Amino acid sequence: VWMVMVLRGVVVASLALLATGVVWGLQLGGVFEAHSAYADPRLLVVIPLLGMSELIKGTESIELLRAERLMNFRTVVTAQVLRQVCTTAITIVWAWLQPGVLALCSGALLGNLVIAILSYGWLTPGRMRLTWRPADMLGVVSAGKWLLASSVLTFMVSAFDKVFLASRFDATALGVYGIAATLGLLAQELVYRINGVVLFPLLSQRHRESPATLSADYYAARRGIEYFSVVTSFVLLAL
Q1: What is the mean pLDDT, run by run of 10 residues, along the chain of 239 residues?
Q2: Among 115, 142, 169, 225, which residue's Cβ finds the most Cβ atoms within 10 Å?
Q3: Residue of 105, 106, 128 whose CA lies nearest to 59
Q4: Strands (E), the chain
Q5: Global pTM value
Q6: How far is residue 125 CA from its own chain's centroid?
Q7: CA 198 to chain centre
Q8: DSSP string spanning 103-117?
């Protein structure tokens, strides 16, 4: 599984470099309107930096994922809090010394680097050994193919507005829109976090230990999340 994560990071970083080359060529060809975010030369730095950030994240110890599976929330929460603290602190200091979009990218990159280093020592004391089991890897890829397809489609739907508006807005206006969209999606992100970090590992454990009650447990948990989502939606609409 660790090898799959590393390969995923390599693929994402490679696609980011490819996208950078395509955007650079289109900029030279004058395809984009001069005021659009796609014509901004800073984009040629942002894309590869974010791709490198995902590459670094893919090298984290697999023990972090194992901690989620075993519902070791102390390790999971510690890692998440440290990532946010490091990313935010680096971004603020960088932006204070040299304001610009590079502060955001560098904060994410260096924050992931710190967690990747700590994941092999302080966060997860257990030692790993590098192994290669083709059958296990094929099993992971086969089981995750539908998750990959759904994740790609979900990302395309959620990011379509920004991809489209980048051709109409300049970088400043697009940044303001991105901040507003992020604030509006805070509740949704909270639900995603609860589902991914708490509910999914809990239901996985229930499936292994007591599959007869899995359906009832699932709908009981889902009912609470849906009540929260409906109430939050009305509050956001009212605001």
Answers
A1: 85 92 89 83 88 90 82 81 87 87 84 87 72 80 78 80 82 81 77 79 83 85 85 80
A2: 115
A3: 128
A4: none
A5: 0.69
A6: 25
A7: 17
A8: HHHHHHHHHHHHHHH
